[in-house]
User: Fold this.
Amino acid sequence: DSGNIKAGLEHLTPAEQAKARLQLVLEAAAKADEALKAKERSEEEAKKRKEEDQATLVEQVKRVKEIEAIESDSFVPQTFRSSKEVKKSIEPTELQYEPVTVGVGTVDASAPEKEPPPANIPTAIKYQDDNSLAHPNLFIEKAEAEEKWFQRLIALRQERLMGSPVA
Assistant:
């Protein structure tokens, strides 16, 4: 196309010819740049696809190995137990413990400290002995607690009706 370009530029002045040539060069460079960017994008996409295919291939191999392990004779099926079911079965059972008294200043160096077995770990704190740190007023009957709550609710409502703000 160089002949066509020369023929198109002959009627122009040398300055206009230089300007037109510069414009054509810039357009060609822009097209070449776009082509290079498109090629780079396609190479990146191909690389990503290849990586994804390799990742899925690894997952497929892992899955096949797991299936083979399940189908083998050495696999022992076990029943599924939910952690929620285990928690529900532990909470309702109340374990009774003997109160332990520790004297101040007495240290028994011969007996190493042992952790209780996992089955004997308490799920709730129970203060049942008289030497406990909890105040005895904290332990009242359920009916008595409900009655006190009901009386308090009535008193608060009456105060509100009388116009005092309830905190």
Observations:
- The first helix runs from residue 2 to 9.
- The mean pLDDT is 76.
- The CA atoms of residues 70 and 78 lie 12 Å apart.
